[in-house]
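name: query_chain
kind: protein
chains: 1
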Amino acid sequence: MMSARVPMLVTLLVTLLVTLTALPCCLFFDATVYCDDATPCPEGFVCGADGACADKGAEGEGEGEGEGEGEGEGEGEGEGEGEGEGDQAPTQPTVSILPALPRTLDELTLEITVPSTASAPVSYTIAWTRDGFAQAGLDDASVVPNAQTEKGQIWAVTVTPHAGGLDGPSANASVTIQNTPPTLRGATLRPPVPRIGEALTAAPVGYFDPDPGDLHIVQYRWYVVDAGGVEELQSGSTDPTWTPPDFSNKYFVELVPRDQPVSGSAGPPVRSCVRTTPANAAMWRQHYPSSLWAEGFTAGFLTLDARRDRLLLFTEAGRDPSSDRGPFEMSLSALPRFYPLDVALPDPVLMLRASTYVDDLDTVLHYGGIDLDTNDPTATVAALQLEQGCEQLVNVAPTGDPLPIVAGGSLVWDPVAKRAIHLFGVTSDGVDYLEMTSSPVLSLQGESWQVAAPLAPGGGTAPGPRISAAVQLDALRHQVVVHGGYAPDFLYGGGGQPLPLGDTMLLALEEGAEAWRPLNLPNTPGAVLYAATGVVPELNSFAIVGGCASTGTCTTSDDWSNVHLLELTPGVEAWSSTTVDPPLAGPVIDGAFRAESGTFLLLTRDEAADSRDFQIVEVTPTAGSTWTSTVLHASAGTLPPPRARHAAGITSFASREMVVSHGGDWEVNYGFNGVLLDDSWKVDLDTGVWTELTPAGDGSPSARAGMAVAAAGPQPDGEGEGVPFAMFGGICGYVVGQPGQAVVCDDTYFATVAGSTINWERWPGATPPPARVGAMGIGIYMGASQPSFRVVGGRNASEVALADDRLFTSSYSTEPYFDNGAYSSIASLVPPALFDAAVATRFSAGNNIAVIFGGRNGDFSITNALWSSPSYVTGGEVWTESLTTSRPPARTGASMSFVSKDVLLVYGGKADLMSTLGDVWLIDTRAPDPAAWQSLDVTADTVGTAPHGRAFHSAHYDSTTDLLWVFGGDTDHGPNNQLWSLGPLERLPDVQ
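structure:
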């Protein structure tokens, strides 16, 4: 017996046989006469078993009319019974429907076993029924699409064979559509960084069930991960909330989707992970605004994590380790903005690393790069494990021979051979950079990496060394497509100009037969810089989206919306071009192909706005002349430029806004001229969007830095809308021709913020305090109609430290509010000459207190003294030094805040002119004198990393969220514009 699926030929034969039976006479093909019961043979011929007329004399057969198969014994025209070989109807076929137990998403495929005893070609009539009702639209169909089936339906088929005008017995088969288990795309856990002892709540993401009307059930299985491995702690619960025990810091939950009661069918599990922190730990978290990068940002690698519907970005923001390098994530379902992942960077910190996504391990793999500590290429292999909530970036130690030291180039994942191949780039002999002569290979053995033999293509000529080439895997043909890139001379000092390349090559990946093949085609696009690439299966093409002039000098006049397409059909490869509409707003930083929707996701920079703005654009390929683009997310603001020694005195946490920046400069070391700023900014703490404030009133003060700043008259709780902001003095210029010689101001400004406007009022008084920089500003609450503030210490333009204490008081009842105010000198014991110290104030009815810590003495030595002035109001206060034990190291430029009624927190500062600090200290002012300082460990017990040390930053404590907010400041590598929070703080033992 021969088994085969019903081909289209069957239908054609059925049509042909019907046509033949309708003809009134025999048809002659090659002198052969065909016949059947309705079409007898001519005189002297007999209809044979093969359906053809044969000479009955030549055959020696009788002309009998019987249906037997007997042969005649004589010649002539005898009427022997059953002596001719008559027609035979086909036998009953064997019929089955595959799969035997189909689910809702399965197609039904008919399979027929062809009978062996038929007197003519066999055709079939196929009739389908669903729950006993005929399905007319499926006449003679061998496949039933899954769109027509649902769970519980009974599908039956009747197959009737036909041959020689005779019908054989019909055959039947039937199946019942089974239930399809549901699936989940992912899961979430909240809170994202829980305290040990807090309840965890899991939630399914992307529940999908093709069977309508099913009862959706999710079971939750909780596990702990510790030194002993993975242990299941709770199984089979339908309650999404669970409180972990107090003995580990990493837990994950498996969500099992079901569409029936517990005994029903289950889909594959998904899982999510969290790291808990000790109940008394504080955590640093970076808060990114809608703008992503500072000046000079370039993207290193953008990939799509389809399992979790998010983009992952690794940046190359120059050689400054304090810059924001990623990884970052952006949810494509929510599209808020990029957030930094709480993972450490590879060790060493790298740039120009090659990266690829390894689906087998749900991991992004990095190889090679420039060690930012030594400025040399490395052989570092790092893997970012993408388990959501517990992402981890770890160094990989492959077995086998050492990998070559390499930088730049591209990393390609070969899913067939389970290997990562590094192409192009440069290597080093320890002294000079060299061109790559081989392609290092990492093979995946189980879940471990092994260094394999270098890739040595046996045919063709390999492309020359290059960096940032357009490299993509063509999975259908198991090959790599390469176009363009930079020659490495450009990146390593070879003339200082880009050396773009414009060739196209294919690399076959069949193991043992790898070979390069150049494509010398018409209309090759040449070098295309700053573009996204991908292989579009629907168009059978390799695509280059965006880009600019091949000279490397990209301007706003370049057409960023070009699309270059390479047809990939072997032997007929060809380049063509199309465009994107609406056009892209600017250059493509990087891109990823979203196979689920068949679209490109592009990270672009908006050239029409500030260069720090960005967009996420979805580009949909079409077979027509123009691809379509849709902006999924556009940044809604820009970052303020980096700064230090800026004013930061207005806080409005009740409305979730904080004004943290006015003025400041780019240089905080004395003896150098800084770049002074005169802009003002506020940030929305919920969305992270920055807004530059428009000055009103008397206009923005001149550019300056190092002012004495205070909130002049906040409410007793330290917060409130419309609080005036006082600012005195500072550096407001430099003497021409005398580097480091500052011009120091003595003017006073007050400001309030409403919406996006900052209203400035300049005090017009004639007797201000002596001009100074680095003074301490202290706000005072003396009643709703009498806002005041004090200016303590500082240094003058001759760099002489001051030891005075000046009080400004004014009536707040009439406008202009501060015109009738005046300064007075407080003739009481004041701290010794001091400047650039940290200051904090506590406002409590009848018990105000001001505290000063650290700074520089009159001899410019750095101190760690703590001075306090309790119950200060109008000038009778006394400053006293607290002789505390376990003092923090001496520092200047630190910040200090009350984080509860009586507990002070000191962060950062400089221990000398060069080194910034990142430590955190607490002291309880209620403790007996001398009180003890406590060092707060905010890195070992937290998720992620702390900010780099900084000084001359701004810091504000927000009691509504129990967070300390920190912005800007000077690092070991210059000023920054990062926004961080530290907390929660009220649970710390020393803050109770």
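note: Residues 286 and 980 are 4 Å apart (CA to CA).
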